[in-house]
Amino acid sequence: MNAPRARIQRRAVHGVLLLDKPLGLSSNDALQKAKRLFRAEKAGHTGTLDPLASGLLPLCFGAATKFSQVSLDADKRYVATLQLGETRVGGDLEGEVIERRPVSVTAADLRSACDRFTGAIEQVPPMHSALKHEGKALYEYARAGVEIEREARRVTIHAIDIVEGEHDRWTLDVRCSKGTYIRTLAEDIGRALGCGAHLAALRRTGSGALKLDQAVTLEALEGMSEAERDAQLLDADALIADCPAVRLDAENAARFLSGLRRRLELADADCVRVFGPEPKAFLGAGHIAAGELISTRLLSPIEVQGLLTERTA
């Protein structure tokens, strides 16, 4: 008889991990692996990457999970490889080939096609996506052979640059708004070129101000000690690091944490990070209107104490 597996002793962990997700894992699989490595009580990711995509996946632990929406709403950046001449089910390498057509495309042709999709555009979400219809993901309907009518959504493609390529295979650098489907963009570009296309590879290189070159792999994390892993975590306020910081004395910090507005001689601001008197006493996020500091997302006293304990341990 096999001995029972030892139960993992969970612990409070707070911060943001920039993970370089590998191919073949879903975002949730990658999250669960990282959560086990950190023995974290609470964790969440900030937007899915398909198993066939790799790259930047910010993971939030503990108090940082309260700010994951910021990363969800942020602009994204991808390196996308397009295979021209083949249209596939689902728009990526995993689907069966629907049609093959001859390819005669120059860099100038591709540049012209990409320009047509730069700016604000309408995209119809693919059936092979995690969008929900009556409680079920669209990909579940797609796997059952059921087509659901989808409304077009407005997204913004900030820029498309040609990285390299020739003939029927090209790599693009795409900067876009949240909610953009790169496989749909690949199909649209292929349609504009008259030869069809599918997404052959995808790697996320940026999310807001966060960059892939700051990320760590699961393999590297597995080879680290727990202290070394913890050192990879960014502060719990990392996802709102662009917001100015406001520091309160002990009395005002306690009142802010209880949800009370505080009057300050500061200029209005849509977002501020709020700290107590201790250097790492992050309390939450707020905004300043008409001289008043108003909370928008508060940490619990236990979370604040956990941050102080972590940083002084």
Architecture overview:
- This protein has 313 residues and is of the alpha+beta class.
- It has 3 domains: 15-73 and 210-230, Pseudouridine synthase; 76-207, Pseudouridine synthase (2-Layer Sandwich); 243-312, Archaeosine Trna-guanine Transglycosylase, Chain: A, domain 4.
- 24% of the residues lie in helices and 34% in strands.
- It is built from 9 helices and 18 strands.
- The strands form 4 sheets. Strands 1, 2, 3, 4, 7, 10, 11, 12 and 13 form a 9-stranded mixed beta sheet that branches. A 5-stranded mixed beta sheet has the order 14-16-17-18-15. A two-stranded antiparallel sheet has the order 5-6.
- Helix 3 (107-115) crosses helix 5.
- The longest helix has 12 residues, at 27-38.
